[in-house]
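re the bet — no i am not wrong, look at it urself. input seq straight from the record:
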Amino acid sequence: MDLKLDINISNQYRSKAQIARVLTENWVRINGYCPNCGSELIEFENNRPVADFLCNNCKEEFELKSKKSLKIGKKIVDGAYSKMIERLFSENNPNFFFLTYDITKLQVTNFIIIPKFFFLPDIIEKRKPLSSNARRAGWIGCNINIAKIPDKGRLYYVKHSQIKPKNQVIREWKKVSFIKKQKGENKGWLIDVMKCIDNIPKVVFTLSDVYKFENILKGKYPKNNFIRDKIRQQLQILRDKGFIEFKNRGVYKKIDYID
């Protein structure tokens, strides 16, 4: 994997946005690979409304978002809010690549994949409508708040300009792939408890530490009157899947398989 962006392929373009798109899409086409099976990626035709890349083997689809920055940040600017929400519940919702680059060095700084099964409606933030003076007056865009996605749902190919081994990326993808079998509220619960664990600043934590998020979870699931029971259920699933280790009664340890 070469972190350099090939500026020569953008000579025919003048728009900064077009240049950035061409540079980053070309980089992913050459250096990217499918995290599910490790095969090469091919590009869809231009202006396809859903995805940018397709795995040539397993047919997983990917959309690329990129920005000029040294860091990923907490939020990614996306398109229309209504379309994004609609896509979350569609069968062809793609996985997301996020790429940042240093324009002075013409080099990729971060490149991550967020599996589509980690996307829940509450990570999509509605932006203010465009003013009446705007060309698309009233149009409502959105931000993707990736800070709400658990750490295990952000898989790095490149982190702070350091390339991760391909076998590690594929292993991490397969580790979380069981989540795509979870449906509706069950998936939401599992992802939310993973995020609660991320927010506990200790490697070894207790059931009481997780119970501190009870009110937050109650706010998200107001019809559930057995929040603590549900928390324990999710901890058991995460233990069985190798995300946490059971130490003693009510005591757990995080398993940090992601560097």
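see?? The radius of gyration is 20 Å. told u. also Residues 16-31 form the longest helix (16 residues). so pay up
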